[in-house]
């Protein structure tokens, strides 16, 4: 459908620092209109509704951004087909992603792996009223390119050309580059023979440590799955570290014949604290493995990929010293069945804090995930809080000690496990804030160790106070 180009909401054409666009329909456009110095948008016309830019990189892609910014678009979705040539991926980051984040209020970048552009358009077309593209290399390719899109898409198509000038690829955008090159999928490491070969060549011993507290319903399947991966030669040890479970967790674990320790009995001369961080600290004393991995024992949907996926990047790439899992999850909330999404403390607390104060960690999808692996020598240099803040403290220190590019994240698939109610999440968030503050005491001071909640109902007030004393461990 041809819409009037006069309705295109283009602003800023009279400003000296804004590029001037010639807006033409595909029927009006001629190859000779593609002047080497000007900006041209060839379009089916403006439509209200969802808009996406399908971009590769370079001056024509940048011209699309300029056009949309002048057209009043504030929230932009950019869709990118992954490149086979690494330099083109870098060009996309420097000429599209970085400028877009400066030009628009919010930007969502979607990397796709569709076999062809036509497949991509068929998949996403129904979601958008308008799709914009950077023009092909030469003017004679514009109309054939438009014909390919029109066969698969019924909305408004716009193809944008910029002036033929040289552009320098910005070396910035490290986080975007890191996300693309240090984010893996467990399926990338699903060939046991390959992992065994890398492990043998590198001569590394691997231990999986399973922290537990009252997980008798799920711990057996977690151990069974870990032992299955051990059988194929990727894991050397599977050990349970229990925090005084009052149910049958310990008995179930012992029935599988693996070593089982109570964390308070490990190095008793060091004393003992409650908390997950304490269990992780004590666990380092029961193994001499070169690579230590922790996997939670409350996971109902445990699968072998949780183990080989987490370990795969470290076994295949000696530059990777720390690996953190992330998940697509519904989370099982005991009071209300299945809740889609999860990661509530991450989205409400950790991610805003990271972006505000620790932007170098902003590429991590689930920075609070408890499934992680690290080289022993790096772990032994860390200062560890005994509480729920241990995952955040480990991530911060891993990047400080080894550098961002020595760390990675791996999609381990769907996880279903118990989650906390809102009070439990508040307790967890408070402990994480304590840890973040104490890691930079000169900036934030020493945090208070009491969490107060004030309730008001039926004409009366109630004040509840809960203490969270914070202790730190060093090796």
TrEMBL record:
<dbReference type="InterPro" id="IPR001173">
    <property type="entry name" value="Glyco_trans_2-like"/>
</dbReference>
<comment type="similarity">
    <text>Belongs to the glycosyltransferase 2 family.</text>
</comment>
<dbReference type="Pfam" id="PF00535">
    <property type="entry name" value="Glycos_transf_2"/>
</dbReference>
<dbReference type="InterPro" id="IPR050256">
    <property type="entry name" value="Glycosyltransferase_2"/>
</dbReference>
<protein>
    <recommendedName>
        <fullName>Glucosyl-3-phosphoglycerate synthase</fullName>
        <ecNumber>2.4.1.266</ecNumber>
    </recommendedName>
</protein>
<dbReference type="GO" id="GO:0016757">
    <property type="term" value="F:glycosyltransferase activity"/>
</dbReference>
<keyword id="KW-0808">Transferase</keyword>
<keyword id="KW-0460">Magnesium</keyword>
<feature type="domain" description="Glycosyltransferase 2-like">
    <location>
        <begin position="208"/>
        <end position="319"/>
    </location>
</feature>
<dbReference type="InterPro" id="IPR029044">
    <property type="entry name" value="Nucleotide-diphossugar_trans"/>
</dbReference>
<keyword id="KW-0328">Glycosyltransferase</keyword>
